[in-house]
Amino acid sequence: SCSSRSEAKSGRTDLIFLIRFRHCCLLRNQRCILAYLYDRLLRIRALRWEYGSILPNTIQFHMSAEEVEWFNQYKKSLATYMRSVGGEEGLDLTQDIKPPKSLYIEVRCLRDYGEFEIDDGTTVLLKKNSQHFLPRWKCEQLIRQGVLEHILS
């Protein structure tokens, strides 16, 4: 270290240039990696809103263990927050991502699901190809999961 300092002072300015250049390259690579990781976290956060609290295996397969852990922590934080607002039952912020035009929608069942309870206590049997007129907020999650399909008239 003492000899390289003396070499630089004695005219080896090419070493100083190379050291500075290498340092700038390392800083640039670090910024790029941090931007990439931050973008992945934003996408993982968006997956919670799109798919719900359980991710499909095809998506989880492409996530690292740390990303899965971050997703689980985000999911718990969001659930805690939703329970803390909106009274006793809490407020589900993941429903009605787009403002509804009507409270009830017509849906078609794409696969056998079984019994589905509506908020008034009645149950509906969701069988493949059956059509129902249901409250939007109750079936929006099933639409995102691919169980139901919104029939547009």
Automatic annotation (TrEMBL):
Q: Where is the GINS subunit domain?
A: 14-85
GO biological processes: DNA strand elongation involved in mitotic DNA replication
Task: State the InterPro entries in the record.
Answer: GINS_A, GINS_bundle-like_dom_sf, GINS_Psf1, PSF1_C
Q: Which UniProt keywords apply?
A: DNA replication, Nucleus
Highest taxon of the source? Eukaryota
Ranges for domain DNA replication complex GINS protein PSF1 C-terminal come to 101-152
Q: Subcellular location, in the record's words?
A: Nucleus
What cellular component GO annotations does this protein have?
GINS complex
Q: What is its main location?
A: nucleus
Quaternary context: Component of the GINS complex.
Family named by the database record: Belongs to the GINS1/PSF1 family.
The free-text function statement in the UniProt record for this protein reads: Required for correct functioning of the GINS complex, a complex that plays an essential role in the initiation of DNA replication, and progression of DNA replication forks. GINS complex seems to bind preferentially to single-stranded DNA.
Q: What is this protein called?
A: DNA replication complex GINS protein PSF1
Organism of derivation: Himantopus himantopus (Black-winged stilt)
- The gene name reads Gins1
